[in-house]
Amino acid sequence: MAGFMKSGYIPWSTDLARIPEKHGVNNVYGEIGSTFASSAVTNPRFCAAFFGQLVNIMGPERVVWGTDSVWYGSPQWQIEAMRRMEIPNDIMRKHKWKIPLGGPNSEAKQKIFGLNSAHLYNLDLRMSQEKPFRHDQIAQIKNDYLAMGGERSNAAYGYVAKKEVKA
Fold this sequence. Notes:
- By secondary structure, the protein is mostly helical.
- It has one domain (2-147).
- Helix content is 54%, strand content 4%.
- The protein contains ten helices and two strands, in the order H-H-E-H-H-E-H-H-H-H-H-H.
- The protein has helices at 2-7, 13-23, 34-42, 44-58, 69-72, 76-84, 89-94, 107-120, 125-130, 137-147; strands at 30-32, 63-65.
- Strands 1-2 form a two-stranded parallel sheet.
- The protein is globular, with a radius of gyration of 20 Å.
């Protein structure tokens, strides 16, 4: 963090953030996944600087949300952490950044949480509000889950090795 505060450089992140302007391209995005998950807990100030750099150099329309939930479990804690995330004023001033992350439901956070990805995948959000997805595979899985009672289960499935107990 000290190096960033002095130079404004974060290895690999700063390089990524500079690609669109440096090379004149518009197809580069910063995906926030396990980096956010681990840094939000271990070093929230670094996390805010990392996030602030992507948002302020690339623009909030070039940052997308990812959770790596397959590895970390429910992403709800990450969503809550992101909703509360702000870039400290001293970091904003030091690097002359103009775009804050804003409140829990700010425009920047709405873009990051899903509007940017919807744009990338050409999803018409108005259509999904008028005619929600009811017949896709996810809807079928949900219907099956509800038909089985809709109860949570903490059962573990798969191979479990038995430990031998010596008498």
